[in-house]
């Protein structure tokens, strides 16, 4: 069974890399590794666990105002069920629901409540 390093980057905070098997959700693995991610429903319905994929070659710290190149979430993660909390444009912008996403490659993901607020605070998203 394959596993991948997923680097979780809290906006304005720490970074943590967790080795996650292809059968495990990012949220499950992060919780087992004592990496506290926000969550609610754990079924893809509420959006509390949302993360944002970061460009693979980006080495600077997370900047909430930074605009990343478009990233295809489908290349990075598989979903265990339909991500109902995300609209198609959210997926196009690299947002991913970590409670139902299993990794398909090593990636960096911006996480934490600020990522969720990006969706909530911007009425155009
Ligand atoms: S915890 Fe609700 S969508 Fe992930």
From TrEMBL:
<protein>
    <submittedName>
        <fullName>Ferredoxin</fullName>
    </submittedName>
</protein>
<keyword id="KW-0001">2Fe-2S</keyword>
<dbReference type="InterPro" id="IPR006058">
    <property type="entry name" value="2Fe2S_fd_BS"/>
</dbReference>
<keyword id="KW-0249">Electron transport</keyword>
<dbReference type="GO" id="GO:0046872">
    <property type="term" value="F:metal ion binding"/>
</dbReference>
<keyword id="KW-0408">Iron</keyword>
<dbReference type="InterPro" id="IPR001041">
    <property type="entry name" value="2Fe-2S_ferredoxin-type"/>
</dbReference>
<comment type="similarity">
    <text>Belongs to the 2Fe2S plant-type ferredoxin family.</text>
</comment>
<keyword id="KW-0479">Metal-binding</keyword>
<dbReference type="InterPro" id="IPR036010">
    <property type="entry name" value="2Fe-2S_ferredoxin-like_sf"/>
</dbReference>
<keyword id="KW-0411">Iron-sulfur</keyword>
<dbReference type="GO" id="GO:0051537">
    <property type="term" value="F:2 iron, 2 sulfur cluster binding"/>
</dbReference>
<dbReference type="Pfam" id="PF00111">
    <property type="entry name" value="Fer2"/>
</dbReference>
<keyword id="KW-0813">Transport</keyword>
<feature type="domain" description="2Fe-2S ferredoxin-type">
    <location>
        <begin position="4"/>
        <end position="117"/>
    </location>
</feature>
<dbReference type="InterPro" id="IPR012675">
    <property type="entry name" value="Beta-grasp_dom_sf"/>
</dbReference>
């Amino acid at each position: 069974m394959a596993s991948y390093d997923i680097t979780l980057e809290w906006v304005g905070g720490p970074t943590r890399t967790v080795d996650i098997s292809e059968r495990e959700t990012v949220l499950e693995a992060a919780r087992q590794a004592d990496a506290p991610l926000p969550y609610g429903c754990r079924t893809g319905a509420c959006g509390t666990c949302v993360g944002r994929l970061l460009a693979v070659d980006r080495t600077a710290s997370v900047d909430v105002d930074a605009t990343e190149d478009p990233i295809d979430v489908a290349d990075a993660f598989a979903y265990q069920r339909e991500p109902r909390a995300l609209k198609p444009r959210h997926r196009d912008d690299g947002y991913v629901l970590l409670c139902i996403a299993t990794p398909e490659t090593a990636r960096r993901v911006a996480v934490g409540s600020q990522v969720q607020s990006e969706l909530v605070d911007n009425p155009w998203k």
